[in-house]
Amino acid sequence: MSHVKPFTKENVQQYPKVELHCHLDGSLSLSALRKMAAVTGAELPADDAALYDLTTAPLETDSLIQYLKRFQIVTDLMQTPEQLKIAGYDMVETAAKDGLIYLEARFAPQISTAKGLSVEEVIAALLDGLHAGTKHFGIPVNAIVCAMRDRPLDECIDVFQTAAKFKDQGVVGLDFAGDEFNHPALEIAPAVKAGLKTGLPFTLHAGEAGPVDNVAVSLTLGAKRIGHSVHMSGFPATIEQAKRAGATIEMCPSSNVQTKAIDGYENFPLAEFLSAGLKVTLNTDDRTVSDVTLTSEVMKMHEQFGLNWSLLERLTLNAIDGAFIPEDQKEQLRAKVRAAETVTA
Question: Could you give the residue ranges of the DSSP H alpha helices within 114-211?
Fold first, then answer.
């Protein structure tokens, strides 16, 4: 007689998970922030609870802009190669604790150039940290390089062209982060086109703080993955467009509740997107700012919508399909998922 393993936090944590949408600067542990502060002698609250309050957004945030304010304290600590290495290493350690077998961590080098580092130096230092983490924890972690939507387009194009120099060193894709509402997809189109010329694929934030139009334009531009896209809900033509494009949808439940992209977990369009046949994946977005893990997001979806083992397997295989890695590496990850014991004899 076989039994299904209970769907508990402990069992989900041990399950081999994959994450495609995680911002490094929103996901650093408090201990890493303290190490990073020590590098430059920056002042942080001595009390962890006080530091937690500075870096974590409440569930009742007013907007994406309010939510993004939580990043400033972290950004100030990401300005030297040593700090960036600590950050990269910490990201892999966090992934290991959360039971991930593969992670794509994204970061915007433009925010780490305030003290004189070049974009190239920022990317190199972060990759050093990620590689050191991978070596120690045995989890492959690649990087997606983001440009910021509010920066001049020529500067963004330069970020993408610089990122492409690291194609064989762990940079696997490109993205635009930041204020989607005031800088829609159409506005950033020239930079996306220039970025695609490097041969690196795009994932684009769309339909989070902005309307469904941004999803449609992002897909038209050639984005292979869409970050968030909750505002595609209720628009069957755009859902059909995403499906035809074979686009992977990177969904981030708690972050969307916090930034008011959706009104409460009960309105999260997980079931709608799944039943429409979209390649949905679950992600944390910002582990520290949203105070979540991939395990806790899976449990949240289990409580809200009855997400079970077979659905978790489907979401995980979707994430592997959508990962910006070669097919042979995907096959190795799939083997780990297939070997996961969710049924006990």
Answer: 119-137, 153-163, 185-196
CB 110 within 8 A of CB 152: no
Task: Give pairs for 246-249: CB < 8 Å, separation 24+.
Answer: 246/279, 247/219, 247/223, 247/278, 247/279, 248/20, 248/203, 248/224, 248/279, 248/281, 248/318, 248/319, 248/321, 248/322, 249/225, 249/273, 249/278, 249/279, 249/280, 249/281
Cβ–Cβ under 8 Å, residues 55 and 30: yes
Q: Do residues 329 and 29 touch, judged by C-beta distance below 8 A? A: no
The CATH fold of domain 16-179+186-334: TIM Barrel (3.20.20)
The beta strands (E) that lie in the chain are given as 3-4, 17-23, 100-107, 141-148, 171-177, 203-206, 225-228, 248-251, 279-282, 343-344
Catalytic residues: 208
Cα separation of 10 and 137, whole Å?
Answer: 19
Structure tokens at 191: 């930079």
Q: How many CA atoms lie within 13 A of 135 on its CB side?
A: 8
Q: What number of CA atoms fall less than 13 Å from residue 132's CA on the CB side?
A: 15
Burial 44-81 (b: 16+ CB within 10 A, else e): beeeeeebeeebbbeeebeebeebbebbebbebbbbbb
Under DSSP, is residue 51 helix (H, G, I), strand (E, B) or coil?
Answer: helix
- Strands of the sheet with 171-177, listed across from one edge: 17-23, 100-107, 141-148, 171-177
Report which residue type is found at 47.
Answer: D
Residue-level pLDDT, tens digit, the chain, 345 residues: 678 899 999 999 999 999 999 999 999 999 999 999 999 999 999 999 999 988 887 777 777 777 777 778 899 999 999 999 999 999 999 999 999 999 999 999 999 999 999 999 999 999 999 999 999 999 999 999 999 999 999 999 999 999 999 999 999 999 999 989 999 999 999 999 999 999 999 999 999 999 999 999 999 999 999 999 999 999 999 999 999 999 999 999 999 998 889 999 999 999 999 999 999 999 999 999 899 999 999 999 999 999 999 999 999 999 999 999 999 999 999 999 999 988 775
